[in-house]
């Protein structure tokens, strides 16, 4: 099934329909999405990281959740398949997909599904309309980065670990002061003005600055091991954020490298991580942020503002933790059979 989830689009599969061997599965996903190819002309991918995504869903064996959700980021120009991160955008479609495929029975006018995010260990709760026992995708909820409106999907995520992976409010990485945060998504917070930027540049303008993209990538590669991610050369995490003062009444303005392209909006878990990070005194961005006392924190991005609701707390031992909730939408685009590209038989 092809669904738009949040501001991304991806292919959703039942785990039982795919090879159990990860190597075989990943090869199949590359052939289904049409990678490696900058146009992904021979597959379902949309020639951008935001549209080259896969969700694999199954009933969970855990007693406290309904569904296991494994996310795969499929490389566009490279033959890579990464499970190093999850995706909060595709998460919006997991509950509806589970009902559509009969993994979860609808429960009246609204159905709540407990979801185990396999990539990170976090637990999410998604609630969405199911009148007359069917998922209803129509509604008046709108999110920046998606035209029109759709049914509201409420998602709450409880983190499974420390908010600050290094235990430090700020670190120095490759000569830059950074804050390393993981509230569902590993992110690195940086000041845009350190790079001679206003923070209001367009994604195309930022992508076109070779020295800037190289500097951001150097910081990302150095930050990966510090965040417990190991060698991230072939990974799409951590996500890199340039922060600047808000311009449109939000809490902070952002530009996100994901990592080689610049996001035209922002993902749900990225926004949750940024919102949590700027609420910690002394963090990068804390001094230029304007989070409201009661929330939500408006995370400004190139095409609008994401309202992120986070609760940040500090334990007696000094460890910072956070929980988050968001309103998302999703839409079923296509339900059918995909025919993978045949295995490559080009002589070598």
Automatic annotation (TrEMBL):
Record keywords, A-Z: Isomerase
InterPro entries: OMA_tautomer-like, PrpF-like
Recorded GO MF terms: isomerase activity
Pfam families: PrpF
Gene3D superfamilies documented for this protein: Diaminopimelate Epimerase, Chain A, domain 1
PANTHER family recorded: ACONITATE ISOMERASE-RELATED, ISOMERASE YBHH-RELATED
Similarity field: Belongs to the PrpF family.
Protein's recorded name: 4-oxalomesaconate tautomerase
